[in-house]
Design brief:
By secondary structure, the protein is of the alpha/beta class. It has helices spanning 6-14, 52-63, 94-101, 116-127, 141-153, 158-162, 177-193, 210-218, 258-274, 286-291; strands spanning 2-3, 19-27, 31-39, 44-48, 67-72, 88-91, 108-111, 134-137, 164-165, 223-233, 242-246, 249-253, 278-283, 298-307. It comes from Candidatus Merdiplasma excrementigallinarum.
């Protein structure tokens, strides 16, 4: 295993930068192969406006592993007590809050201020800087169209304006703040699930499990890092999914759960005992699937990397 070491990887992703691990595996069918596993920074959800929709949306988003920040220029709405599940609450003029947040291409931003005057203030500041992965704005079709026309007349790029989801959210007939929050979150999930085209040898999954990276950084015991390098059929794991296993069992992460994960865990115990990395094939098809009460199954190829506790004993990482 090469790339950033565990300490550097955790710190790098925590700073909002990408990280990478390279796995040099021994595939019995194809010989040695190299796989690249990228780690994208945590996806921040930035809510510009602390009204009733934001209040509902924070609770929903936090359950789905978004790191939520709320900003409002009114003290009574930018109150940590209103948003106990938010990671950060900022009370400042919107332009100042946006500057302080330093929006990145990995962020999701929802503009939901108390009126289109302030919506326009937010959009102007965002559109002049780095575009986030997602940018949406609350409002009726008529009002959002009028604001777009105004921004076009001011010279803002059509390409950037086309990326603004307005009105925000999926069309599910939402009316109440909670329902609108669900429609927005559904759209956020859709954006988050969209995949970039992977390069040769690059595993599709790019999300960062910070609990797993933290374990890799801080553990003082031997562990096995399991990564799915190939998936066929309807096996539950994703290519690039990671799990860390120590002698006590699963330490962090997942390769899909269920019977497949149990098989990986048993193989990981053997790797720990032998202190030797290896590739395993997990089958959940035919009689194996039927025996587990599964309607359908598939196969996974999983690389089990032995990671000794003493860092100086590990292979040199570049």
């Amino acid at each position: 295993m090469r790339g950033q070491d565990a300490r550097t990887l955790f710190d790098r992703v925590s700073r909002g930068e990408e990280g990478e691990l390279l796995f040099d595996t021994k595939d019995t069918r194809e010989g040695n192969r190299q796989y690249s596993r990228r780690f994208l920074p945590s996806r921040r959800l930035i809510l510009l406006g602390g009204g009733h929709i934001s209040e509902k949306l924070v609770s929903l988003a936090a359950m789905l592993d978004f790191s939520v920040t709320v900003a409002d220029d009114r003290e009574e709405f930018a109150c940590a007590g209103r948003f106990p599940l938010a990671e950060r609450v900022i009370c400042a003029p919107f332009e100042e809050a946006i500057d302080r947040l330093a929006i990145t291409p990995y962020d999701f931003v929802a503009v939901m201020t108390r009126g289109h005057v302030w919506d326009g203030v937010c959009l102007r500041r965002i559109l002049r800087g780095t575009m986030p992965a997602y940018l949406g704005m609350v409002g009726s079709k008529r009002k959002t169209a009028l604001l777009r026309e105004q921004l076009e007349e001011e010279g803002f790029e059509k390409e950037k304006l086309d990326r603004v989801e307005a009105p925000i959210g999926l069309k599910i007939g939402a009316v109440t703040p909670a329902e609108i929050g669900v429609s927005i979150l559904a759209q956020l999930i859709l954006y988050r699930s969209q995949k970039e085209e992977a390069g040769p040898g690059e595993l599709a999954c790019r999300e960062s499990d910070m609990a797993l990276l933290k374990f890799m950084k801080e553990t003082e015991e031997d562990y096995v890092l399991a990564v799915i390098t190939e998936k066929k059929g309807s096996a539950p794991g994703r290519e690039g999914a990671l799990m860390a296993a120590c002698r006590q069992g699963i330490a962090a992460g997942t390769v899909g759960g269920g019977s497949g994960e149990y098989q990986v865990l048993q193989a990981a115990k053997q790797v720990l005992a032998e202190k030797k990395s290896r590739m395993v094939r997990v089958s959940l098809t035919g009689q194996e699937a039927a025996g587990q009460g599964m309607i359908c199954g598939g196969t996974m190829q999983v690389w089990l990397e032995y990671c000794p506790a003493e860092r100086e004993e590990k292979e040199t990482r570049t």
